[in-house]
Design goal:
The chain is built from nine helices and no strands. The longest helix is centred in the C-terminal third of the chain and has 55 residues, at 144-198. Helices cover 83% and strands 0% of the residues. The two termini are 52 Å apart. By secondary structure, the protein is mainly α. It has helices at residues 2-8, 11-32, 35-38, 43-52, 58-67, 69-79, 85-103, 107-139, 144-198. Helix 6 (69-79) runs antiparallel to helix 7 (85-103) and helix 6 (69-79) runs parallel beside helix 9 (144-198).
Length: 207
């Protein structure tokens, strides 16, 4: 591995740094984007039972807000429920936008790595070929070992850049899809709460 990095030149250091950052982001997002942690099962039903029993107060709302991202959205809606459906929906949308922003944290960085890594590899290819032609101009085509060094650098950096970019792109798409699914789940849960609170019959919330 060290020989490949050395043969690839200084651009390999940048590509390696990109790979380290990409792996760190993937591990962190895999841990953070857990649907059960973001939208705990039966949380809405529990909140509804507490609401019907008159147990929702400032302390309960604070605890709910700190429990999970879904709890934060529900607490924002419940806190503004007395002001009407429109105000409640606006507060929910505002809280949801903050939650979505947190869910998408580091994804721009991961996407940037997926775009930049192959460009670094391409730059390494160009640098390597420049060295090859410089050797040809200085020594002619008779020194095969000198030419092989530049060609090797070009090929190694290209392969390394693609090896970082492809997994980064795949994980970026994967996380984006997971976030879309979580957002749909959050929307469904909050719509249930809004409809139940402001329906004429005051129906029960169901999972």
């Amino acid at each position: 591995m060290l020989e490949l990095v050395t043969a690839g030149g200084w651009l390999m250091v940048l590509i390696l740094l990109c790979s380290i950052v990409a792996v760190a982001i993937c591990i962190e997002r895999l841990y953070t984007l857990n649907p059960k942690k973001i939208a705990p099962p039966h949380l809405l039903a529990t909140v509804w039972k507490q609401l019907k029993a008159g147990e929702i107060d400032a302390n309960r709302l604070k605890s709910l807000r700190q429990s999970s991202p879904l709890g934060r959205i529900l607490a924002a809606g419940l806190g503004n429920a007395p002001h009407g459906r429109d105000v409640m929906k606006e507060s929910i949308e505002e809280a949801a936008s903050h939650v979505i922003h947190e869910l998408e944290r580091y994804l721009n960085t991961l996407g940037t790595i997926a775009a930049v890594a192959p460009l670094l590899g391409l730059l390494g290819t160009v640098v390597g070929m420049i060295k090859v032609f410089a050797e040809i101009m200085a020594q002619g085509t008779g020194n095969a070992s000198a030419l092989a060094g530049g060609i090797s650098e070009a090929l190694i950096t290209t392969a390394a850049g693609l090896s970082v970019a492809i997994p980064a792109l795949v994980m970026h798409r994967y996380f984006s899809g997971r976030i879309d699914g979580i957002v749909v789940e959050l929307e469904q849960e909050t719509i249930k709460l809004v409809d139940a609170l402001h329906s004429e019959q005051g129906g029960e919330v169901r999972r």
